[in-house]
Amino acid sequence: MWQVIWFIINILFVISLVVYLFVQRTVTLAREEKDDARLQKAKRLRIVVGVVTIVLFAAMIGSFLTNMRLNGVE
User: DSSP class of residue 12?
Assistant: First the structure.
């Protein structure tokens, strides 16, 4: 059970990390184009995606440690 939960959270974490990198690129491009409205929107999105990524990372660690405790090597 915990292996499936860990696997799904792990996939979601990797997806959110990739999305964060694309949003970071959007911030960089908006900064280079000097588009203030787009830059502010991209920065807010970057913060939201960053927080989601951190939360998923913590959930991934928790589910992994729970799985190791329940199904670990004796």
Answer: H
